[in-house]
Amino acid sequence: MTGRGLLRYIEDLLRGNRPRPFRAEQTDVAELRTAIELRAARPGSGVPREEFVTQLQQRLATELADTPTWGATRIVGTRRQFGKGAAIAAAAAAVGAVVDHTLTAGRSDAGPETGHEANTLTPTAGDWRTVAASEQLPDGAVRAFDLGTIVGFVHRTDGVARAVSGSCTHQGCRLLLDATTRRLDCPCHTTVFAVTGEPLTHQLPITPPPLPQLVTREVNGAVQVYAPPAST
Amino acid sequence: MTGEVYPDWEAVYRDNVDRMYRLMFAKVGNRPDAEDLTAEVFVAVLRPLRVSASVGEVRAYLLATARTVLAEYWRRTLGREVTTLVDEHTETVFADPPAPSNAPRRIAVILSALPDQYRRILELRFLDSYSVREAAAELGVSVANAKVLQHRALRRAAQMAQEVDQ
């Protein structure tokens, strides 16, 4: 029996999307490995995008701005925190020492999963409200927004802008964007969501539901979500 | 060559970013994750790095960090270590000029051992970027059949891959 998680994972690989996590069985591993190997053999696969190479260099320059030893370029700017990165580097010498994560139980594959539609937030009365200019949201970017009535995060993946609610589905704490890992962290119970809304890791007895999707569109260079009107 | 040092972190980055990305792509098979993991490795490595570290030391450190970053990625996403970097060596990963990969030959061996329809569906979908619909049309089967064919072909290929490894 081939699980839906595995099939979806392979389909994501083939489409060039970020594959969605699932709870893999040991029997899935060989197929996953072969799928990755075959996909990586597609012509042009191993060459990074020029845009990525440039952006990462800029990001590193910002992060290293206050490290005088690597002094060739000193860019004044806010240094992003990256405690986890340093921890990983420190642990790298000891093979296998990694940050301890609780694996998310994942969504049950048993229920009728009708994609995101079942989980889309649609206000009874709403307006199209701009959350970002299109140019502020290049492919791969994530931005937080606060419309007063709703907070959320908008991201662009494979050219399409999508938005999710920014409130944790456990007890409603406001999620924080970790731009370096492209994840949404809950400050209350260390739950982590993907920018697409899926819960990734948590330490709760029950996996929290995915974040509600917001209806999103793009018109005249503006990314808009359908949200309740601002309170006056 | 081994005693050489990098003039600055940008040289470290420029000299190794392509190979680190290629390495990660080969292990995760998709661009978004390969980019994130490449970034994670460089962010983790550059700050603690000593300026006086030799090129060889820097690369060994990059590879050691990449191993940990990849292991953590699998733990966090699937809970199984699907691919690892334990068999990779600094000399081959960072060879200059790049060492020819044995991946194409391996894949050719695996594919050639499969029944014709199995081989074709995998080539079309994985190597030639056909959608399942396009692949079905090419093979003259229904979309549902193409899906089943693909699942069976992949399972068979995975078995062949394990045999090749032994």
Sum up the structure in keywords.
heterodimer; A: about 230 residues; alpha+beta; Rieske Iron-sulfur Protein; five-stranded mixed beta sheet; four-stranded antiparallel beta sheet; 4 helices; about 20% strand; B: about 170 residues; mainly alpha; Arc Repressor Mutant, subunit A; 2 domains; 8 helices
Describe this protein's structure:
The complex is a heterodimer of chains A (232) and B (166). By secondary structure, chain A is of the alpha+beta class. Among the domains of chain A are: 4-40, no CATH class; 117-227, Rieske Iron-sulfur Protein (3-layer Sandwich), CATH 2.102.10. Helices cover 21% and strands 22% of the residues of chain A. Chain A has helices at 4-15, 29-40, 50-63, 83-92, and strands at residues 120-121, 127-133, 142-146, 151-157, 160-165, 176-178, 183-185, 192-194, 199-201, 213-214, 216-219, 222-227. In chain A, strands 1-10-5-4-3 form a five-stranded mixed beta sheet, with no helix packed on it. In chain A, strands 6-7-8-9 form a four-stranded antiparallel beta sheet, with no helix packed on it. In chain A, strand 6 and strand 7 form a beta hairpin. Chain A starts with a helix and ends in a 5-residue tail after the last strand. By secondary structure, chain B is mainly alpha-helical. Chain B folds into two domains: 9-93; 103-165, Winged helix-like DNA-binding domain superfamily/Winged helix DNA-binding domain (Arc Repressor Mutant, subunit A, Orthogonal Bundle), CATH 1.10.10. Chain B contains eight helices and no strands. Chain B has helices spanning 9-28, 31-46, 55-77, 90-93, 103-112, 116-127, 132-139, 143-165. Chain B is elongated. Chain B starts with 8 loop residues before the first helix and ends with a helix. At the A-B interface, helix 1, helix 2, helix 3 and helix 4 of A face helix 1, helix 2, helix 3, helix 5 and helix 6 of B.
